[in-house]
Amino acid sequence: MSISNDKIRQNVRNRYKKIALQDVSTPSCGCSSEVGCCDTQADRNSVSEQLGYSAEELNAVPEGANLGLGCGNPQAIASLKPGEHVLDLGSGGGFDCFLAARQVGETGQAIGVDMTPEMVSRSRQNAVNGHITNVDFRLGEIEHLPVADQSIDVILSNCVINLSPDKPQVFKEAFRVLKKGGRLAISDVVLTAELPADIKNDLDVSYSGCISGASSIPDLQNMLEQNGFSQIEIRPKDESKAFIKEWIPGATIENYIVSSTIQAVKP
User: Fold this and answer.
1) What domain of life is recorded for the organism (predicted)?
2) Which of 23, 49, 186, 192 could form a Cys-Cys staple with 262, CB 3.0–4.6 A?
3) pTM for the whole thing?
C-alpha cells in the first residue's frame, strides 16, 4: 500500500517541527531517528565535524543554527564566489545559509527555503541574533519553490531531497530557478542496495530519518538528465558508513545507503 505524498510531507514536517522547537541544547543528531540525541553544543559540533565541516565553520554561525543535521558538507563542493546568489533547499536552522552568506559577501545573497514554519522562524531569529543581513528565509516546499526563474547561481542542499516524495519535481524546480551555467552542490544519501521491507515501510523512523526515501545513483542520474542538467557527477562516500550506522543502531542501514555528493550544471 502506497503512502500519499501529503502524508509523507506532514510526517517530515512534524519531525522537524519538534527539532525546531527544542532548546538549542537538545537537537537531533545527523539524520538519525532520535530527536534530542545530542545533548550539548560540543555533541552537535562533533557530529558536524564527522560530516566534513571545519571548526572554523562551526564557530562562524549564530548559536542555534547548527542543529547537527545532514549527511555531508555541500559547502565543500560549491566553490562559492563573492556576489553569487545561493539557494539552500531545506534550510533548517540556517547553518549552510549563514556559511554561504559569508562566502558570497554583501553583494551576494543566501536564500533558504524550508516547509516547516517553526524552522523558518528559528532561522530568521538566528539571522537577527547574528546580525547577518544578506540572508532571506522563506516558507515553502522544495517541489514548489518561492523563488524567481533564473535568479540563482548555486543550489545547496544537505540530506533533504531524499525526504521529498516527488524528487523529479524538485529537480525540475531547481532547473527553473537556476541561471544558465548555474550549478547544484548537494550532499544526500543514495541507495546502494534494496532496503528490507520493514525499514522501507517505516514512515516515522526510516523516511523522516533520511533512509527509506533515498534513490539509487542510476535513478538520480536519470532524474537530473530528464530535467535538463549536464556535467552530472554523483560520488558516493564509503567513509560515511561510519556515522550512518549510528542513525538506527543495530539495523545495519550502512549496508543499504551511503552519503554522496551530487553535482550538475544547467547548460
Assistant:
1) Bacteria
2) 186
3) 0.86
